[in-house]
Amino acid sequence: MAPTTSTSCIGKAVSELETPSFLVDLEKVTKNCQAMKDSCKGLELAFRPCTNTHRTLEASKLQTVEKEKGIMCRSLHEVEHLASNGFDDILYGFPLLKAHMPRISKLAEKLTSLHLTVDNCDAVCALKDTAPPSGKTWSVLLMVDCGAKREGVWWEAEDGVKLAQAMKDCEHITFKGVYAFCGNSYEGTEADLEKTRDEAIERLLKFVERLTAIDVKCTTIGLGGTPVCKTSGPNMKKLTELHSGNYIFNDLQQCTLGTKRDDIACTIATRVVGHYPHRKQMLVDCGENGLSTSGNHGSNNKEMGYALVKEEPNFRVSAVYQDLGVVEAVSGDMDFSKYPIGSVIQLLPWHSCGTSLLYNKYHVIGKDGKVAEEWSPISTC
Ligand SMILES: Cc1ncc(COP(=O)(O)O)c(C=O)c1O
């Protein structure tokens, strides 16, 4: 975990901050949020943004279409935090565990609308065995795996249909419908996106048809994941809602799927700590302490590594130690005189969700290049 500065940094320039530091460009974040809202509106689909990339109250407010309504969280800590701060319609989009029922019951009492997701019989039994707060029912979505190979009942299997039927038959459960996270969209390239999306939608709709055939209705048919939510196609009209989270910050991985590098709204400020001309490298004070190493892209992705230097995209972070990052040129030489020891540079991360997780404060940069706000993300554990 990167160091926390307990004193306020509002008004400071980036060069004055402790490093590594997670920076958010307020203008870009606001623009990214509006673009996703506009695109869902254009598709005539409801939009339930996901807080997984930032886990803050401030960004949740920027993301939501209707003031403090219609949001999705991946951890109960986040649901509890948002519920205590005015949010009133929250989807807890993580496989429900029986052990969490006491916390879920408290949330259901507090919120006008709490929605849950399940993909197995233990979770459905936990809901059947627990009475919801008086006058309410458990509102539930069934997660369907349409190719992402993560949570969800496999779209072709029989168990999902049985679970949906069991929920429909339970008086205190309102079966809302289905939701598929299109995580496999991250595996391909931009050229594969439409095919991946359409295959997921087709599978999801086939599953819905099987439910319709036994009179189990789906009022919600949702698809998630930033890469597919940024596309548009006629098949999408058959859905009812989209869920995405990463688009708020974006990252280099998203750029390999069509996002413009200029739309990356977060950077890591880091200090140059050494020059090593004999091996054409410099070291910065940001290693695993400040950059996600998820997917080991430093070694897998030669062009971008773990991060690119914002000011000089020909420089990448090619390797990370616990507290140091190795910066080298993708091609050609390095002009060390431009990056004196002690100077601050900014990194564009390969993976913004995993990177933001390492910080307990974000410095939000305004138009004047100075810290305008400080956001404190909720810990996920
Ligand atoms: C179930 C689910 N839906 C939606 C999202 C948001 O996806 P993305 O970060 O690609 O926008 C996530 C992210 O982890 C997720 O797990």
UniProtKB/TrEMBL annotation:
InterPro entries: Ala_racemase_N (IPR001608), D-amino_acid_metab_enzyme (IPR051466), D-ser_dehydrat-like_dom (IPR026956), D-ser_dehydrat-like_sf (IPR042208), PLP-binding_barrel (IPR029066). It comes from the Eukaryota. The keyword Lyase applies. Keywords: Lyase. It holds the Pfam family D-ser_dehydrat. Coiled coil: none annotated. Residues 265-366 form the D-serine dehydratase-like domain. The keyword Lyase applies. Belongs to the DSD1 family. This is D-serine dehydratase-like domain-containing protein.
